[in-house]
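Quick illustration, no need to memorize.
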Amino acid sequence: MGDDAGLPAPASRDSQAGSQAGNLWISSNRGLSKFNLQTATFRNYGPEDGLQSYEFNTGAYFKNERGEMFFGGINGLNVFHPDSVQDNPHLPAVVLTGFKKFDRPADLGQNPAAVEEIRLRYSESVFSFQFAALEYTHPAKNRYAYKMEGFEKEWIYCGARREVRYTHLDPGAYTFRVKASNNDGVWNEEGLAIRVIISPPFWAAWRFRALAALAILGALGGSIRYLELRKVRRKITQLERERELERERARISRDMHDEVGASLSRISILSNLAQSGALPPEEVQNSLAQISRTAAEVVDEMSEIIWALNPKNDALDNLAAYLRQYASQYFQPAAVRCRFQFPEMIPALKLSAEARRNLFLAVKEALHNVQKHSGASEVRLGLAIKGGQLEIEIQDNGKGFCPESLNRPGNGLVNMRKRMEEIEGTFTLESREGGGTLITIRLDLEKCAKQ
């Protein structure tokens, strides 16, 4: 026999006496104990069961012929018949008596004893249960055990304590269980069961997570699509630049062939004639003069091509300055007064080389027609920006003509219209006999902007 069988500790076995019921009664300094010889377990008694005290005197025990037991202690004598001492078989019911949130009583909306389920928000992270066993034989000897299924695996024996506190449980569904024993240690294993549901925060709810997952997938898909589109746009831009480069090369080749090539061919023909000896001396001199003029024209044409190709000249204000310089120099030897009508501030908008080249050649052709055909004494070169469009006017006070009377337009007018069509611009001509001529060319600046 020892403490592991239920004998209270620390205790000294002072006296013992047998009984006819198969039990052994033992007194100690921790009360009176009944040892069941069949189950090898103890049932302990104390002052709350009617004993004079916990402490008994050594050797102070006696059993008479009627089977009554006598045990002497420091405060008197205890006399009883073992058969009259019966264990309490009643299974104590367990009820909920209160519920707290953050150590403050919570309103459950009904009698706590009738509560079967408690729902809590995630923010209600501190809560406690209060409970009691409906056993009144010796309430002070009632004992309790509890566990939160889903959080605790084993029963936690808490003695006579009737309140349990929990903090910061994860969201989810739990079952809080409490069982109790009566004064004789008889446990009600079924006890009390209350379902506890702790709702997750909004960011942990499955709907939010599903939406967040969809948002992430959408963002990921959008990012992938954006990257793919950006890759495609870059490829398109690269192809457009390559195509633009090819067009620029073709245009330069065409200009070199049409303008410089024709002039060089003329120089070659005149040179061969002068060297052949078949021409009279005066015609040889005339051929040499033509060679000199043509060579000067070639130099001018090459200068114009190089100017159009130079990226430093890709701004609109540079084009305006170049047109003004060219017109001044072109009409300087002639008896034609050149007047300019330009705005004080011209924005430095970027223009493609093709747009600059065709604009310049169209204006050049118009100025050439003024000097060659109009008989004008004054010419006005105007430049303005109206509603996102560049507008250039070349107006003279010459003899003019009736456009309807022309059997066919000259190469100059055809070339001007063709050059403006190449850069998606427009060309208009207004003239009447004796009233001079007005040529207007317009260009959408956004369409011809340098990429």
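The chain has five helices and 21 strands.
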